Amino acid sequence: METHGVLAAAEPKAIALYCLDPRFQKAFQFFFSKELNLDYGDYIPIVIAGGASILARPDDYREDFEFAISQIDFALLHFPSVEEIMLFNHKDCGRVICAEPQSIDDLRNAAANIESHFSWPSTLKIKLYYASFDSIRAVPLTERQTAATP
Length: 150
Known about the structure:
alpha/beta; 5 strands; 5-stranded mixed sheet; 33% helix; Beta-carbonic Anhydrase, Chain A
């Protein structure tokens, strides 16, 4: 009997939170596989309209913010193998309409909101990424603006 790729066990290394925009799904999967060397089961996907900006703007997206936080909380509780949280935003998002500089600030503010929400294990890292139509690039965690508070 064919198992369709179901894993008997998984020890994911990362959580990846990104937007559900279908224009970027193939790029995200390619990036995870080829650039980050993460295969299915190596990361826990949290896919939500608006991507990481949802975590940066809890007052604007309260229900989705709480959903995303609960998913991260569940993943960290049930998969102690997780070493990093990867947050993604992308160009031309239809849910959170803003220019690239604001989207990048949102990534940094989302990271700050995650850090303030969880008891932070010193070994857990947050990595930020911005996707345009021709590439996905890392965004430094520094230069963060004032974070919104949940």
